[in-house]
């Protein structure tokens, strides 16, 4: 039997045209990536790995952060545009990497390194929070806002690692209401890790608040 004509669906098809979440070209399907970007992504995705930050905190990352890549486009667009499809896609990819690393997020609190208030006002986006919420929904975990961000100095403007670490110590504080994290395993999420200063400071704050274990997770790892 033929489906009845729906003017709502017809109008939606005119307004909403699926686009690749990386290069933004029009697509005929709801797939997140166009064939060309998907091919490149699969190659970039093979660069996933595990390492430790300078303080010994374990870090799991999805891919390397390099210019002129699908990864770069996904991260850059995530900083400037709120798009649920992009967050959901990256969350699904992160979930695969965590599963491959043998991590179960069912009893884990997922939190994120927050963006500065000025950047949130400027762009309307906190990309790491969106990723954290999507990952929690995807894996059946719990996402919580645990940090406040105070600094107006951007980490990328500081070249010296010691200065970046000192700036991060001034930038982040843990919320006083976060007593429920004592004895818990925490998954700390960010979009890109370069020096790791922000994650090191936030991980230390979580441990000071009583967290049993902190694991850092990032979409991409950049060169220091």
Description:
By secondary structure, this protein is of the alpha/beta class. The protein has a single domain (35-221), classed as Rossmann fold (3-Layer(aba) Sandwich). The protein has 8 helices and 8 strands. It has helices at 7-15, 35-45, 70-80, 84-100, 117-123, 127-139, 161-171, 197-208, and strands spanning 49-52, 58-64, 108-112, 142-143, 147-149, 172-174, 185-193, 213-221. A 6-stranded mixed β-sheet has the order 1-2-8-7-3-4, sandwiched between helices. β1 (49-52) and β2 form a beta hairpin. α4 (84-100) packs across α6 (127-139) and α7 crosses α8. The model has no long low-confidence stretch (mean pLDDT 87).
Give me a quick take on this structure.
The chain is 41% helix and 19% strand. By secondary structure, the protein is of the alpha/beta class.
- Topology-level CATH name: Rossmann fold
**Poorly predicted residue ranges:** none
CATH second-level architecture: 3-Layer(aba) Sandwich
- How many strands appear in the DSSP assignment? 8
- How would the global form be characterised? globular
Number of domains: 1
How would you classify the helix and strand content by structural class? alpha/beta
CA distance, first residue to last residue: 61 Å
Level-1 CATH class name? Alpha Beta
Outline the biggest β-sheet. 6 strands, mixed
If you average the pLDDT, what whole number results?
A: 87
Which strand order does the major sheet show? 1-2-8-7-3-4
User: What percent of residues adopt helix (DSSP H or I)?
Assistant: 40-55%
